[in-house]
User: Fold this.
Amino acid sequence: MKDKIIKLFFQFVSWFVFIIIATIFFVIISSGIKYFSIEFFTQYPSGGMTSGGIFPAILGSIILLIVTLTFAIPIGVLTGVFLSEFGNKTFLGRILDTSITSLSGVPSIVYGLFGYSLFSITLGFRTSIIAGSLTLAIMTLPIISSSVRESLRALPNNLRESAYALGAHKTQVIYKVLIPAARNRIITAILIGMGRVIGETAPVLLTAAVFYSTRLPGKITDPVMTLPSHIYFLAVSYGEKAQWMAKGASAFLLLFILTIYTIAFMIRRKSNVK
Assistant:
């Protein structure tokens, strides 16, 4: 009887949370998808944000995402490999492991203030793609490195022992055996990191985003418009006439993130089946 009661309780909690999340998704998407059009995705905002589209915000978010992953992926993967295969029993490894775990719980606004102080002011990047990307790369580092570490540790030891028995060096074992075996999980971690980067607002507002730009960025030292920051500016600075654009941009951003996470979970599920 106790088992049945506990089972029913957890089922109720699960369905309750699911209904809340589904309701949020439905409200946001249904209120914004009706504004979708070719012009909405291909034009600049105009008329005091009461007409036009969100093209520069979409392009800016994609550029920021690409530059961020350029920094985050190699550093995150190498850090995960070190923690799993080299530093798991060393003092440096324990310190790095603790630091990575601690960084996962730091609020995004703290990352934004750090990036603004270091990259925008101290290094002189000001408001730019490079300043925002470096800040977001530091935010994404715990996600990628922790996932790579756990993915490699989850592999059976006989996989390593078999490779060593065939005469492979440790570097060969890692990059020719272990990483290919954990490839799907690593890709999943990168996609989850992408989902977080594309939806961040506070760090981007402080380091990379501008309210409105009349031209597309030509180099990484230029500022950009992004979807989260554009939605924020529309919500706090404009009246009811501009809220339709905020609703449409919110719906598109949510659908984009859901697509990334769906792909990630499909890859992870495929990996688990194997």
Notes: The first helix runs from residue 2 to 32. The chain is about 75% helix and 0% strand. The domain at 36-273 is CATH 1.10.3720.10 (MetI-like fold). The mean pLDDT is 90.
